[in-house]
Amino acid sequence: MLNRSSQTFGECCAGGVVAALGLLIVMEAQGFPTLPGQRYGAALFPLIIGFAMIVGGIWLALTNLRPVMQRFTTPRPVKLKAAALSFHRLFLPVWLVIGYLLLADTLGALLTLALLVAVLMLLSGVRPWLALVMALLTAAAIWGAFVYMLRVPLPLGTVFNG
Amino acid sequence: MDAILSGAGLVFNLQTLVVILAAAAFGMFVGAIPGLTATMAVALLVPVTYFMEPIPAIAAMVTTAAVTIFAGDIPGAYLRIPGTPSSAAYVDEAYAFSQRGKASECLGIALVCSVIGGIIGTLVLIFVAPYLAEFALNFSAFEYFWLALLGLSCAVFISPGSHLKAVLSLCIGLSLATVGLDSTTGSPRFTFGVTDLMGGVNFIPVMIGLFAIAEVMRFTSKPADELAVTVKDTGRVFGEVTPALRQHWKSVLRGSGTGSLIGVLPGAGSDIAAWVSYAVSRKFSPTPDRFGSGHAEGIVETSSSNNAAVSGSWVPALVFGIPGDTITAVVIGVLYMKGMNPGPAIFMEGGSMVYALFMVFIIANLVMLPVGYIAIRMGKGFVATPTRIVMPIVLAFCIVGAYSINNSTVDVMLMLMAGVAAYGLGRAGFPAAPIILGLVLGGLLEKSFMSAMIRSDGDLLAFFSRPISASLGALVILIWLLPLLIRVVRRVAA
Q: Which residues cross the membrane (chain A) (predicted)?
């Protein structure tokens, strides 16, 4: 469970981001064309949503602003190493997906998927032999289901296929 | 008669039956693993169903949804952890029942009641949907606008948690739905010069990101503890079903009725049905003091209710194209992509497709019995499957699933962005369900809104000029004002 202070900080930031997104929508929608002979057109619906996001986002951010300010004015020990480790663990799936996108065309989807599964299992504490077996089985199952049955052209890779 | 036989031909063929069995086994596995939800099961299945004919595709998703909701009871009985949110209402009851060394008996009761609830919900669909469809034929853009808004409003205001955050989640989904060519003026919106965005945001990668990638990120940020089953078990799955049904048959019927009714409400899903039915069961029980100690009455009523709600939620989804919950939102999205637009016309034409749909719903619930029996016998193995083995496999399937829709890495990136955003929003307490509902319903909402505006020449009072439209509008306004009214009433009462 998240502690309350962290949750409040998250709410404040999310409120700000949503409000900014709303502002972007409103600004972008200004240039949309209207219907002939009418004052409204393609911009009307996005404008309503955009304004709702601005108002709601600001409201959410402001209602959580005081606890966040208190959090920053109260000195607290910062555990940099733990924070960095936590950040790294959190974004592990993101790095792995990006890794897949970068390597699949070269190594092929089969091998890249096996690597991805094996790496995530090993880093999650699965025994190496089990991680290897599961990785190979997963990649083979995906290859069988998607390439042979559903005819999805997953990348074959240039390393093994010239 | 020809239509019925033709419908049977669409269902009783090897491909559809194998798909139903495979979907049931998949749903059972996903539901039995704590932390994996029914929506996630359907989300992972969508890329596969994308390549199927409409009936096997719908069969796969309906079966998965129904079976996953029951399978969520398995870890509840063994570990006191609900497999899906729909089992949360009676997890303590099921666990207390299992503590007597009767986990299989408890799950046997839940299984049979889930099947009964699911079939009663399907009967509601079969008998109510055609009448509603006939009624809906008179609907114009005004009524469709209010109906879509009613579905979204229910999703926002009936669900637990902050209403403001739910509204903002909904706005995010609606804003994503505006990306692409505008249907009224034909001009591109929010495409930023990217050609791939002209057709709009592909909802499948977004959905996989929202419900699967965010879950994988939650797992890697805080890996779950190893699960161990300590409950002893006799293994007599159907041992206590007959006495429980004989004693509590009224509860089964009431739970199924309540669940079907709540399922029919747009935006309210099986988890809400389960909570309501558990409370109703306790309220009207002759032995309310036995609740919490493993009383069969609560399990009977609630397990029939949540599966009835799954079936009931298909009524607004198929008749109006308004999703009853997140699962039906996903399915509606797939139906649109396949060119099979849900709406009253499906029922009014009364073709083989409608009969095939009804048969699929019944088979999906019946197949739960044998598959559920096997799953209960293997239950201990299922629930103890470590998430550190499951989640990497889920991640691999997510990538290939998102890629396979258009054979495009852009969709994989879209999935990743949706996943990261959903994780961040989830940490701040924003629900993910309204985002997908907004994305799926946004097109209908805007199209009906703009059509109504053009017809009325911008006169907003016209939205209340027709009787049904005015009633629906008043209902929507009431739902939006409900939190305020409740607060005022509480203050006055205090």
A: 12-32, 44-62, 82-101, 107-123, 130-150
pLDDT of residue B53: 83
Domain that holds residue B240: 2-493
Where does a domain end: A43, A76, A109? A76
As a whole number of Å, the CA-based R_g of chain B is 22
The answer to whether the Cβ–Cβ distance between A49 and B178 falls below 8 Å is yes
A51 with A109, same domain? no
Alpha carbons B415 and B409: distance in angstroms, whole number: 10
Amino acid type, B252: V
Residue A24 has what pLDDT?
A: 94
Amino acid letter, B353? M
| Secondary-structure percent of chain B, ordered helix, strand, coil, rounded to 5 | 75, 0, 25
C-alpha span between A42 and A140 (Å, rounded): 47
Cβ separation of B217 and A56 shorter than 8 Å?
A: no
* Same domain assignment for residues A90 and A72: no
Best mutation site among A1, A5, A18 for testing chain B: the one with the most B CBs within 10 Å? A18
**Residue A10 shares a structural domain with residue A50:** yes
Give chain B's domain count.
1
**Can you tell me which residue has the tokens 């998965």?**
B64
Q: How many domains in chain A?
A: 2
Q: What's the one-letter identity of residue B430?
A: F
CA-nearest residue to A51 within chain B is B171
Residue A145 lies in a domain: yes
Q: Give the closest of A49, A121, A152 to B174, CB-based.
A: A49
pLDDT of residue A137: 93
The ipTM assigned to this model is 0.87
The answer, for A59 touching chain B at a CB cutoff of 8 Å, is: yes
pLDDT of residue A1: 44
Q: Does residue A162 form part of some domain?
A: no
Percent residues over pLDDT 90 in chain B: 9
* DSSP letter, residue B226: P
Q: Which amino acid, residue B80? A: R
Task: Tell me the pLDDT tens digit for each residue of A58-80.
Answer: 999 988 777 767 766 666 666 66
Residues A135, A91: one domain?
yes
Size of interface A-B (CB pairs under 8 A): 172
Q: Where are the alpha helices (DSSP H) in chain A?
A: 4-29, 44-63, 65-73, 80-90, 92-107, 109-123, 128-142
Selecting from A46, A52, A150 the residue whose C-beta is nearest the C-beta of B189 gives A46
Within a domain: A160: no
> Cα separation of B168 and B156, whole Å?
10
Domain range enclosing A27: 4-76
- Does A50 map to a domain? yes
Degrees to nearest 5, angle at CA B335 with B431 and B17: 105
- Specify the range with the lowest mean pLDDT, choosing from A42-46, A137-141, B42-46, B308-312: B42-46
Mean pLDDT, range B212-219, rounded to an integer: 86
pLDDT tens digits, B151-166:
888 778 766 678 899 9
Asked if pLDDT for residue A38 goes beyond 50, the answer is: yes
Same domain, A70 and A96: no
CA distance B395 to B55: 28
> pLDDT-derived band of residue B28, with 50, 70 and 90 as boundaries?
confident
Q: Which of residues 370-389 of B touch A (CB under 8 A)?
A: 386, 388-389
- Where a domain ends, among A76, A94, A115? A76
Please check whether residues A106 and A64 belong to one and the same domain.
no
Is residue A89 less than 8 Å (CB to CB) from chain B?
A: yes
Categorise residue B220: left if φ over 0, alpha if ψ from -120 to 50, beta otherwise.
alpha
Q: Verify that A52 and A94 share a domain, yes or no.
A: no
